UniProtKB/TrEMBL annotation:
Residues 2-240 form the ABC transporter domain. GO terms for cellular component: plasma membrane. It holds the Pfam family ABC_tran. It comes from the Bacteria. GO terms for molecular function: ABC-type amino acid transporter activity; ATP binding; ATP hydrolysis activity. Belongs to the ABC transporter superfamily. SMART domains: AAA. Its main location: membrane. It is found in: Cell membrane. This is Amino acid ABC transporter ATP-binding protein. It comes from Fructobacillus ficulneus. SUPFAM superfamilies: P-loop containing nucleoside triphosphate hydrolases (SSF52540).
Length: 244
């Protein structure tokens, strides 16, 4: 489980996160939703310290950090080892094949043997029926294929938690559906995922829990069904604006 307490992120002209306290259960899918500029991505990036919070407490399973003080490099690395990250942009290594993209991290960062890294990569490609892509380069893939490979690359590191920052926002609806099917399958396998998403239909169908961020604060933190059937006027306004 990941737990943040009184998490804050302040800029000279803006408070991005205002003393947020929320938990992210292991082996569940949590969707972070909210209007643009509300602090969703800032919260997600704070979990693996890509964004350095200006205050608060971060607990990841047995690891606990006081974010009110500067952190040692070793502490930051220990946190980041717990996570796999998928961004809006695919950000694959363009000079490497799909197979190499999947094995590079485990070999160089996790010091996994080449044989084990290859076995792991082939298992993932087979699991998601993407074996035919193994020898292709990113430029030979569609946007949806690239994003699916990016997800597999994160999984190849065998992280405890998978973070995804609007992984389908740059894709057209058909390609988006390809990626969402992969994420749905991962959710069904009890993968520990935290997803920032604008796709409310996907969040309602797949997420175990919703965290609604509004103006840098938590407007809802609880079961998915409770969010989509909430009588809260702000939540109803937000959901109403997402449909037409």
């Amino acid at each position: 489980m990941i737990k943040v307490e009184k998490l804050s992120k302040k800029y000279p002209d803006k408070v991005a996160l205002d003393d947020i306290s929320v938990t992210f259960p292991a082996e569940e899918t949590t969707a972070i939703v909210g209007p643009s500029g509300s602090g969703k991505s800032t919260l997600l990036h704070s979990l693996n310290l890509l964004e350095r919070p200006t205050g608060g407490q971060l607990t990841i399973d047995g690891l606990s950090l006081d974010l009110n003080h500067s952190l040692a490099k070793s502490e930051v690395l220990e946190v980041r080892k717990q996570f796999g990250m998928v961004f809006q942009e695919k950000a694959l290594f363009t000079h490497l094949t799909v197979l190499k993209n999947l094995t590079e991290g485990p070999i160089k960062v996790k010091k996994v043997s080449k044989e084990e890294a290859l076995n792991r990569a082939h298992r993932l490609l087979a699991q998601f029926k993407m074996e035919e892509l193994a020898d292709r380069y990113p430029y030979q893939l569609s946007g949806g294929q690239q994003q699916r490979v990016a997800i597999l690359r994160a999984l190849a590191m065998e992280p405890k938690y998978l973070l995804l920052d609007e992984p389908t926002s740059a894709l057209d609806p058909e390609l988006e559906a390809q990626v969402l099917r992969v994420l749905k399958e991962l959710a069904q396998k009890d993968t520990s995922m935290i997803i920032v998403t604008h796709n409310m239909a996907f969040a309602e169908q797949v997420a175990d829990k919703i965290v609604f961020i509004d103006n840098g604060a938590v407007g809802y933190d609880g079961p998915t069904d409770g969010f989509f059937h909430s009588t809260d006027s702000r939540i109803k306004q937000f959901l109403g604006a997402m449909s037409f």
